[in-house]
Write a structure and sequence with these properties.
Blueprint lengths: L12 E10 L9 E11 L4 E5 L6 H8 L7 E6 L2 E2 L5 H11 E4 L11 H12 L3 H14 L15 H13 L5 E5 L7 H16 L3 E6 L2 H4 L4 E6 L2 E7 L6 H15 L18 H13 L2 H39 L3 E6 L13 H8 L4 E16 L2 E10 L3 H5 L3 E4 L4 H5 L4 E4 L1 H7 L10 E4 L2 E9 L15 E4 H7 L9 E6 L5 H16 L4 E4 L1 H44 L1 H9 L4 H36 L8 H27 L3 H6 L2
Parallel strand pairs: 3-8, 3-9, 6-7, 7-8, 13-18, 15-17
Antiparallel strand pairs: 1-2, 1-4, 4-5, 9-10, 11-19, 11-20, 12-13, 12-16, 12-19, 14-17, 15-18, 16-17
Helix pairs in contact: 3-4, 3-5, 5-6, 9-19, 10-17, 10-19, 10-20, 17-19, 17-20, 19-20
Length: 668
Amino acid sequence: MVSAASGAAPPLIALTGVRKRYGGGSSGQPETEVLHGIDLEIRAGEFVAIVGQSGSGKSTLMNLLGGLDRPSAGHYRFEGRDVASLSPDALARLRREAFGFVFQGYHLIASETARENVELPALYAGLPPPARAQRAQALLARLGLADRAGHRPHQLSGGQQQRVAIARALMNGGRVLLADEPTGALDSASGAEVMALLHQLADEGHTIVLITHDRGVAEQARRVVEIRDGRIVADGPGPGAASSTSAGAAAAGGTQAAAAPTSPGSPGPARPWHADLGEAARAAWRGMGRNRLRTGLTLLGIVIGVASVIVMLAVGEGARQRVVQQMGTLGTTIMYLGGSAPAEGGPPGRITDEDLSAIAGLPDVAHVMPVIGDPIPVRRGRLERQVYVFAAEWFMPRVHQWPLAQGRFYTEAEDRALTPLVVLGHRAKAHFFPGDPDPRGRQLLIGDSPFEVIGTLAERGAESGAQSYDDMVFIPYRAGRARVYRVQTQPDYTVVAAASPQQVAPAEAAIRRLLLARHGRADFEISNAAARLQAEAQTRRSMTMMLGLIAAVSLVVGGIGVMNVMLMTVRERLREIGIRMAVGARQRDVQRQFLTEAVLLTLAGGVAGVLAGGITGAVLVASGVPVVFSVRAMAGAFACALATGLVFGWAPARSASRLDPVVALAGD
């Protein structure tokens, strides 16, 4: 084992027979061994330079030391614990609490300010925002960047960016600083400033591991390890070792002051999923703003999907309710009852007044209305016409949901008193009283009995091709039997109205049982008009649902667009993912970051979609289209948009969280 330090204290870092291979196995690539049995010890407070040419394996060694990669063979122990066996989250904790990285290319997140970049390790360590901001500002002030805290990387010089990277490495204490070619991209003056800063940190007790190909830079360290072709070929004190005595004294106490000891064997205290949700949402919002056109087009897909679902369901529900309202005038609770010959033979049955009284007492029945009607000669002066005279109870408009256009309908008392009153259908009024806007008080001769006109019903039309109700005239049931239909002893048929559309079937079953019990045979017939109308309403409801499902397809298409955009985002932000992992982000932190971005995207699209749906509906209402908005439909469409973000954002977020940190850092 190679070591330039002595003493009884165990090494902070110990590598024994470490090898690293790439390729081979299921990768389909030839196996290449980059490190060949590395033995190395580094004690706390040392300032070590690892020097070698490109391809010598020094960067691979740094990745292993920093917990970004694992050895293929051998042992790597940090404070006596084997790092190779740690879980991904435990490795993340080790990077977060023990290591600070300073990269040649700075590796700052472009969308974050200098202070926010510095805060990043403390964010994943769970430090509260005020404490994070205060410490980050203090570090930047120490490095001469207090007035650059709010600047983004592109607004800083190379030397300033590298100092921001050093401040980030110190944010959680920086017990071990791994500096990969920290002066490689700087001019000589900036490079000298960075090296002076590293010397200062070493004097304060930080362990510095400097990776470089420049021997002049390496010789500024207090120990120089040379690596060639994956093997350590030299290890000894550097010219800077002259100050090692004072550095060692500082190391004895300064290291513990820099950061609390880290136990690499556990992943650290679990934080709830929502602990840093605000930070994730802020970063996600900035991520969405990087490519506004693409974000806008993706939002458009979600907006169209949500708005389509809302508008389609609203239009469908409006059409359904209009149809139900129109059908309601035909009677969605109505059944027709009459006598008929039984199937086994015999005379036709008769529905008596006692039968009707018994039916009226059933709990599911609201009204029982016997009807007598036939074409009768109706005259006014010289005008005569065969008109269907409809004799029914006083509550006929309520049963058929038929409003009056003028005047009134006869009352129950007038029916019982056999008062000769008549209410005209819309077209009957036009025939008998042309040009007379108000025929009330005039007389009509129905058969040979005079009847006084007291009102006119609203226009209704015909039902299923039958005679138009508007051509009829309507008289009280008892007055009709006494004055017009004198020889008729029973109604032509009886209209039975159930208490509600849901009670139609129970009412029909109860009537059948009652009449079978009373008659002893099935000598009656019940025609359930309500069932046909309800079936039509159900068909309309199904059509509404189908429209909603068709619209939902566009929401799914929008979700696929979200997934595609998020996959592209992951590929474009590989380096950012690598940076977050290097400073200690766990897999679930990265997954939460990108899942939050997907949900935020669909959340914004959902809100805009609800607004667009409302505006579209308002335009349709103004155009006379029946539209009925449902809060449930709007909430459902919005919830589906959020679910779309979760479902279609999960796979890209998971792929981001499973990336290899080394591969991610190497990404563009």
